[in-house]
Design brief:
The protein is mostly helical and 207 residues long. It is built from ten helices and no strands. The longest helix is centred in the last third of the chain and has 29 residues, at 140-168.
Length: 207
């Protein structure tokens, strides 16, 4: 079924066009000795994580506007990456998974065994392969029972399938709280990423 992905090139092009002015303003602060977080905070944070220490890592955050600008850049970039309807992760989930791939993947083994029946105008029909099979082989009792059982199963299966597509195969957000794709960053991850702004020569290098 493939991996969850986005159009990275299109995202980078958008970011260079839309976010460069914010980055340039942030760079002015950094060049003036006002970085969003203390230098090398990202390296120290990773070292702390790999050390196995139990205490919480504390970022040293200067009191200036640069951190707000850095947060804004990361927030807009993350939102575009996750939810853009043209080239974000949600676009891939929609075109690559919700509309076809997952449905076919889950239905395939059941359809191969003639377990599922297709919904018609009046509901799920009780006439199916297994009903005919049992009746044709002299098992009328089972044939009359199996049609209703498989019709009810098919209906429940379709309801579950819709829930998977509409509720689970989503980027998690307020209107999709059960989404499996979590794009939010922890506060520590945001602050660690903010340290990178002071380590690159231009926005393209960061992207």
């Amino acid at each position: 079924m493939g991996k969850v992905q986005c159009d990275e090139q299109a995202l980078a092009t958008w970011a260079l066009t839309e976010l460069s002015p914010k980055f340039n303003r942030l760079k002015d602060f950094i060049d003036a000795g006002l970085p969003p977080v203390e230098k090398n905070a990202d390296i120290e944070f990773i070292a702390h994580l790999t050390s196995g220490k139990s205490e919480t890592f504390t970022f040293k955050v200067p009191n200036n506007e640069s951190l707000d600008i850095a947060r804004t850049i990361l927030s807009e970039l993350n939102s575009k990456y996750a939810l853009d309807p043209r080239y974000g992760v949600d676009s891939y989930l929609s075109l690559g998974m919700r509309h076809g791939a997952v449905e076919a993947h889950l239905q395939s083994p059941l359809s191969a065994e003639n377990i599922l029946t297709t919904k018609e105008a009046l509901g799920y029909p009780e006439d199916c392969f297994w009903k005919s099979y049992f009746i044709d082989n002299g098992y009328e009792y089972y044939g009359e029972k199996i049609g209703l059982i498989l019709a009810k199963f098919s209906e429940k299966f379709d309801v579950k399938l819709e829930a998977i597509k509409n509720d689970l195969l989503q980027v998690r957000r307020p209107d999709k709280p059960d989404g499996l794709i979590v794009a939010d960053w922890s506060e520590a991850s945001v602050l660690s990423a903010c340290a990178r702004f002071a380590e690159v020569i231009d926005f393209e290098a960061l992207i």
